[in-house]
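Recall from the previous chapter that SMILES is a line notation for molecules. Here it describes zinc ion.
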Amino acid sequence: MRTILGILFLVFSSISLAEKEQTVIVISMDGMTNNVWEMPELKFFQTIKNKGIKADYMTPVYQSTTYPGHVSMATGVHPNLHGILHNSFYDRKTGFHRYPDDANLIDVPPIWILSEQQNIRSGIYFWVGSETDWHGWEATYKHSPFDEKITEEEKIKQIASWLDMSDEMRPRLIMTYWDGIDSIGHTYGPDHENVYHQMVRQDQMLGLLFSELEKRNAWDYITLLVVSDHGMTSVNKYISVKSILDEIKIDYRLSSGPAVAHVFISDEKERRAAFKLLSEEENIDVYQRGNLPRSFHMDHPSRTGDLVVTTEAPFMLTNYATDRPKGMHGYDPNHKDMHAIFGALGFNVSTGNIGPIHQVDLAPTIAKLLGINNTDHMQGEAIELRLSD
Ligand SMILES: [Zn+2]
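With both inputs in hand, we obtain:
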């Protein structure tokens, strides 16, 4: 009897040893456009499409640029609630922030903070907002500062060694930023063959990650989410908001992204003059802060301009003659070329296609997969990855 119990104990304990707790890996590929699913030569994107779930597209936030997008994916809220309106922005109280690396500028907790607060370890290999602690909390494992020279191979190596840690130490939420096509897309435009080659390279990196997961039988407990922060479109016309404003003598602060510019003017008379001047310009729209469409989700208490200027491709806002990219993003997120990607594969993921989802849905989805609480402030909805037939 004792022997049978002993054998049973061994059987059960080996089962419990073999079962690892669900782990989520999020890969964000900067600027990866939503046509990846229609390219049969991208073998590993095709694997996701055929064996996992892909969304028709993921709508980014406005303005559809890297910092706002990544922070919205991590927080589940739009830029008006997290405060990162663009890669660089101006705050009435604290001044200009250019490519800031201070997580405390984010008004709500990133998902890895919520995760850590619930004793679920996280490993973050470059994600906007992970560089510093957030009010005393931070990811257990992180790489900072951001270094563009670090290759995807190195990131994958790190992910693999995180997975090899003991269950107690292993991060169960892993998030990592990949190059995607962003930089090449800006230089050459989205339709250039160099962008195509970079897509192939990113697909190969996805393949390398898959093989590391397979080596470890990790698909049994890994849910992989592959996303991008925005798309990319062609531009060839450039508008300088600064040059327009300099036609009149006013005291202003300007924080300009490629598609949205915030103009801060304290004097009311000067503000009216600037509004009139900008309204007369072609190819841009100008809003007084109070009249910003709510759907933009752009009205932050201290970082939204008194006037907000927007434009659409092929125009882009730039104040520098040397800044003439051929590809750009940042525009109205409903513009098809701005659409980002969403794919899921692995543990607890069915096979199928889902309709459009939104960038703010990512954090609630991660929260649901890992059982993370305190998400009531999030504006998105958890994406259903287990489809019923
Ligand atoms: Zn980006």
